[in-house]
From TrEMBL:
GO terms for cellular component: cytosol. This is Ribosomal RNA small subunit methyltransferase A. It comes from Duganella radicis. It is found in: Cytoplasm. Pfam families: RrnaAD (PF00398).
């Protein structure tokens, strides 16, 4: 088959290191009857690994040349290919047997990782778990605790919906072409009952808070909350946004009429 040249516009870096692939598969721990969907299968290195255990899986791929390769390589009873943009894909459209939930995996393109994670969060109630390869810096932001320099909007919004952990780091040489940064594997398990809150309002509060992260929270949220409301939510008005925990942001959001 003709060699595929990685395309920068799709953020393609193909994982080829067999040891890393084995470690990821071990972390995912697939069972034969799982309903698994892979985002961006690329040259199918991870797909091959998973199909050694899975009876069938789904993939979402934007690159039409790669879709054609996948169609030639796998029978339809083994692989269902969804040709399109993962940012627009309805993951709820994948049929899941009663009593099961969807499992999602993928080597996510770095250039769309944050918007894709937010898109996937809308399907969290239908998902059992997610295992993703991402830029290490992004994973560190996702799992950051309050007080960390990298704790921010991504941390708060994703921690509201998921329990997350950085599993291990993957070096650039595990890919072709090698990226200029380290990557990491993150495990994301949806929280069955997130803290009660309006997600859109929480997003608005967090976005405003972190838009001027060098200022104190009182000044960041001026015009949205009074100092009395900030105190009522258990927040020190002179703290910076990165010092405020998820539960406090939720309490603050719930004060909005």
């Amino acid at each position: 088959m003709k060699q595929h040249v990685a395309r920068k516009r799709f953020g393609q870096n193909f994982l080829h290191d067999q040891h890393v692939l084995g470690s990821i598969t071990e972390s995912i721990n697939p069972a034969p009857d799982d309903t698994m969907v892979e985002i961006g299968p690329g040259l199918a290195a991870m797909t091959d690994q998973l199909l050694r255990t899975l009876k069938h899986m789904h993939v979402v791929e934007l690159d039409r040349d790669l879709v054609a390769r996948l169609e030639k390589a796998y029978p339809r009873d083994k692989l269902t290919i969804h040709s399109g943009d993962a940012l627009k894909f309805d993951f709820g459209s994948i049929p899941v047997p009663e009593g099961q939930k969807l499992r999602i995996v993928g080597n996510l393109p770095y250039n769309i990782s944050s918007p894709l994670l937010f898109h996937l969060a809308t399907f969290a109630p239908q998902v059992k778990d997610q295992h993703f390869m991402l830029q290490k810096e992004v994973v560190e932001r996702m799992v950051a605790e309050p007080g960390s320099k990298v704790y921010g909007r991504l941390s708060v919004m994703l921690q509201w919906r998921y329990d997350m952990s950085l599993l291990f780091v993957v070096p650039p040489e595990a890919f072709d072409p090698p990226p200029k940064v380290d990557s990491a594997i993150v495990r994301m398990i949806p929280i069955a009952q997130p803290l009660e809150c309006d997600g859109e309002k929480l997003e608005a509060v967090v976005q405003k808070a972190f838009s001027q992260r060098r200022k104190v929270i009182r000044n960041c949220l001026a015009g949205m909350f009074t100092e009395e409301q900030i105190v009522a939510a258990g927040i020190n008005p002179t703290d910076r946004p990165e010092a405020v925990g998820l539960a406090q942001y939720v309490a603050l959001t719930n004060l909005l009429k």
